[in-house]
Amino acid sequence: MKPKKIKPIDGFSNVSDADVVARGTNIQTCMTGNANFPNPPVDMATLKAVIESFSALIAQALDGSKKVIAEKNKQREAVTKMLRLVGRYVEVTCKDDMAIFQTSGFQAAPPKTVTPPLTEKIRKIQHGANSGQIVLWLKSVHDASSYEIRYTLANGGQAPAWTTVPASTVKSPITLSGLTPGMTYLFQARALVKNILTDWSDSVSFICT
């Protein structure tokens, strides 16, 4: 079995200054002299100096000086750029071996989970922003020029009265409005391929709120 790709958490946009220092210092310490990563793209002594300078500016910026704050923000950007470079190097060099990766000091990003589509033509359904709305995402069909969605109340075996809605693209979700809150609806979709309509997809049931 092919090993899962290991990616480091190297985004710092929503991280506090103190956390950038703590994480950066840990990475710099772990990477210094690390035989698993012998040729990092950033000199570890330089990274240490940049982090220490950033840490000092954090303390100096507490007095509210706009000039010092600007310098601190500039230094933070320098630190994060260096860490991102090191992260890319670690990602490539670790050979997707978690034991080797963990010696770098980086945290591994959680694996992305892929949610399977609900049917061969309906990717997912969610509640809309307002009561009586349902948002539906279609799944792309090769060579399709347009799509259709139809829906009806799930009425326990009676002949369904379908409402059909055209959809020109699958790039944006389709919002269906005017549905009855608390009722369960059935949804189907089909595509127009070379002027021929495909069969309707299997039905997907969903309760409107």
CA radius of gyration is 27 Å
Helix content: 25-40%
Strand content: 15-25%
Structural class: alpha+beta
Euclidean distance between termini CA atoms: 44 Å
Number of contiguous helices: 4
Low-confidence segments: none
Explain what you see:
- The protein is an alpha+beta fold and 209 residues long.
- The chain folds into 2 domains: 17-102; 122-207, Immunoglobulin-like (Sandwich).
- The chain has 4 helices and 8 strands, in the order H-H-H-H-E-E-E-E-E-E-E-E.
- It has helices at residues 17-31, 44-60, 66-93, 98-102, and strands at 122-127, 134-138, 144-153, 163-167, 174-176, 184-193, 196-197, 204-207.
- Strands 3, 4, 6, 7 and 8 form a 5-stranded antiparallel sheet that branches. A 3-stranded antiparallel sheet has the order 1-2-5, with no helix packed on it.
- Helix 1 (17-31) runs parallel beside helix 3 (66-93) and helix 2 (44-60) runs antiparallel to helix 3.
Summary, kept brief:
By secondary structure, the chain is of the alpha+beta class. It has two domains: 86 residues; 86 residues, Immunoglobulins (Immunoglobulin-like, Sandwich), CATH 2.60.40. Helices cover 31% and strands 22% of the residues.
What descriptive keywords fit this protein?
five-stranded antiparallel β-sheet; elongated; 4 helices; 2 domains; Immunoglobulin-like; 209 residues; 8 strands; alpha+beta; single chain; three-stranded antiparallel β-sheet
